[in-house]
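Posting for a labmate who doesn't have an account.
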Amino acid sequence: MKLNKTATQPGKNIDEVAIRAALPGMVQEIGELQMALYAANKNSLLVVLQGMDASGKDGAIKDVFFDVNPMGSHVICFKKPTEHEFSHDFLWRIHANAPPTGMIHIFNRSHYEDILIPSVEGYIPKNIVSKRYQQINDFENMLVENGTSILKFFLNINQDEQKERLKERMTNPKKFWKHKDADWETMKKWDKYMGVYETIFDKCKDVPWHIVPSDKNWYKEYLIAEKVIEALKKNQSEIS
């Protein structure tokens, strides 16, 4: 897969009006299905959101899971490992945050950062990083075999769109809190990050990836909501 040839916009035949009208009902349905998942207490759902800075991970979490009861869900944002976390294997902190039965856990960034960042920045030897692809496959397969459904989303945006969103974080007071000077430095390494993501999609696909065109938030949210509903319904049918 070549990300520079992968869509970031909705197709020409996509009906924006119809999708915007459908979204509130889909969000409500996710809330209802989450309550059923929680009540049954048999399986769980893990949603992994990956993407470049300003690709819309925070917005997707807020809008798609708006009607989900906080008692049945948990959002985990994985940042730079602490000294204690770094002293363990890289999946230690990830496994500790995997969802128990009845729960939806949403990873805002994830274990894939432990391939991305060291691959681009080079602070971990390549031979160690190269082993992590299969270790992740084994880890995800183990979760699935123990009743956790996994949805992996890559929010695919155009580089020009990213620039506009990063600029907005500097001019819109409501988005000042998101601004980080480091994001501009990361943007300069766009091609390197895209190359590593392409390798991840090729090597870590036992649990399939969903590449989501994300230049338009309404379309991104619709596609994510659609897959979440599908996964929750499948869980419900398996336990009924």
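Reply:
Got it, the structure tokens are right above this. The chain has a mean pLDDT of 95.
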